[in-house]
Write a structure and sequence with these properties.
Shape: globular
Number of domains: 1
Low-confidence stretches: 142-148
Order of helices and strands: HHHHHHHHHH
Distance between the termini: 31 Å
Number of helices: 10
Radius of gyration: 16 Å
Number of strands: 0
Length: 160
């Protein structure tokens, strides 16, 4: 019997599921922070299209924009492309001045999204990308303040 290949999840579907889960039970400042983090990440996805998408995917984005400009890149980009977006986004965060609580929400969201992607994309070899993201999070100060994050990520990946 031949096992079926897992369905390819788009970045838009992955982000929709991830942020719906994050919003569950959140209110007030926490909900506002989640909404802001979602806007920032979705904007990063749109801006990094040329870095992440193949030429064929960029042609699809052009066609997709005829139906709706907002979110076209995320609808075409495979969920695995989010790992590259997170790496580039975190590299950008490392050189940006810290903004206290806002920075904490951004870093927590990136760490949680990385864990979510590791679970969703477990049929792919995502360990090298998740490791690079972990290092970038450390560079932004996340691991120093929250050392359990790396252990949780290894557990999700089945390495602990």
């Amino acid at each position: 019997m031949i096992a079926a290949m897992p369905r390819s999840l788009s970045a838009a579907e992955c982000l929709d599921d991830f942020f719906a889960d994050r919003r569950r039970g959140a209110n007030g400042h926490r909900l506002a922070g989640i909404d802001r983090a979602e806007r920032v990440l979705r904007t990063a996805v749109e801006r990094m299209a040329e870095l992440v998408l193949t030429d064929d995917e960029q042609i699809l984005v052009h066609a997709e924009r005829q139906f709706g400009v907002e979110g076209a890149v995320a609808r075409v980009m495979p969920a695995s492309g989010l790992l590259l977006v997170l790496e580039a986004y975190l590299a950008h965060l490392e050189v940006r001045p810290s903004r206290g609580a806002g920075r904490r929400v951004e870093l927590d969201t990136c760490a949680a999204l990385t864990r979510h992607l590791a679970r969703e994309l477990r049929h792919l070899d995502v360990l090298p990308a998740t490791h690079r993201i972990e290092l970038a999070l450390a560079g932004c100060g996340a691991v120093a303040q929250r050392p359990a994050g790396a252990r949780r990520l290894l557990k999700v990946l089945g390495l602990r």
